[in-house]
From TrEMBL:
Transmembrane segments: none annotated. The keyword Lyase does not apply. Gene3D superfamilies: SGNH hydrolase. Its EC number is 3.1.1.72. It holds the Pfam family Lipase_GDSL_2. Keywords: Hydrolase, Signal. It comes from the Bacteria. GO terms for molecular function: acetylxylan esterase activity; phosphatidylcholine lysophospholipase activity. Residues 36-217 form the SGNH hydrolase-type esterase domain. This is Acetylxylan esterase. Residues 1-23 form the signal peptide. It comes from Urbifossiella limnaea.
Amino acid sequence: MFVRVSVVAAAAAFLLTASCAAADPVGLQKGDRVVFLGDSITQAAVGKSGYITQLKATLTEKHGVELVGAGISGNKVPDIQKRLDKDVLAKKPSVVVVYIGINDVWHGENDPSRGTSKERFDEGLRDVVGRIKASGARVVLCTPTVIGEKKAGGNKLDARLDEYAGISRKVAADTGSKLCDLRKAFVDHLAKNNPDNKASGVLTTDAVHLNEAGNRLVAETILGVLTK
């Protein structure tokens, strides 16, 4: 359940004109039920300036769809597999936006057993997408964003994130899902808007979790996939 949050007219107008790097729209229809599936980034997105809050007014009022959140802190792909039926498919969504991968990479930084191997990430994503599509819902698959905001290659886990983003892109292509390339959107934005090469503070609060600008960029990018 979402508490209705008013969004200022300027933010709504910005989102209505937003574009997206992904080429294939998902084709929202009136009456669609949209579920956002992810981790703590998604969980926080229903907050005052969160990306789901920013999307809600536009999608519900302009497009006549219902939004349902399903982010739980700490989630990785194996966790999503375990809770998919209860927390997502039971809501009978017609569109599921999957934004996952940060914890699969990050949690394995010092202890690989706490992360998700590339093979397991690939297999798990395919399982999640397959089960969603088997339920009759369409899938938007997002690439993981950033763990650190320095220029590309300047953050410790950039190479790993690029590999996992590549897996997400391949799974989207192989399964006929809509790709929302959030990693590309973040890297491109930071290349232009982080001249001091800061580790955080441009799009995130702590190098991972989104600040207001990061939430706006995610909302902008996802909106383009859902509506363009």
